[in-house]
Amino acid sequence: MEKPITIEIQENNIVKISINGDLLDQQAEALSKSLEEAEQIIISTFNNLQKKLIVLVDLNNFSGRYVVASLIKMVEFSNATKQYIEKTAVYGSSDKERMAAEMVAALSERNDLKTFTTKEEALEWSTAS
């Protein structure tokens, strides 16, 4: 089974997080483990670079199916990592999936997160001064 959340450090030290498939009760344990791993990677990368990070969140493989418990875990992750993040750009999928990302941003009081349709738009905004 594919991890619900995957994370990689791309060129220019941009952190790419992909949300994959469903975030239903069956994925709860895997989601928690994936988010813990992602948090550690973000903290480690921040400590290595000694600067806040740019994060791209790819929703293209997210089904849009989630339970409230998964949304709460995402809010907790957002709160735990926001001190290490300069900007977060969410892209892909439909309005419904982007709306879920905007709810996470609002609930975690993140004003450095925006949603976009394409990766190019997200990258342009996130890397602009």
Q: How large is the count of helical segments?
A: 4
Describe the biggest sheet? Answer: 5 strands, mixed
Weakly predicted, low-confidence segments: none
Q: What is the strand arrangement across the widest sheet?
A: 1-2-4-6-7
Based on DSSP secondary structure assignment, what is the total number of beta strands? 7
Rg over C-alpha atoms, rounded to the nearest angstrom: 13 Å
- How many angstroms does the end-to-end distance come to? 39 Å
Structural class: alpha/beta
Looking at the structure, the CATH topology is Transcription Regulator spoIIAA
Q: What percentage of the residues does DSSP assign to strands (E)?
A: 25-35%
Q: Topology as H/E string? A: EEEHEEHEHEH
CATH superfamily: STAS domain
Mean pLDDT: 92
The top-level CATH class is: Alpha Beta
Question: How many separate structural domains?
Answer: 1
Tell me the overall shape: globular
What is the helical fraction, as a range of percent? 40-55%
Q: What is the CATH architecture assignment?
A: 2-Layer Sandwich
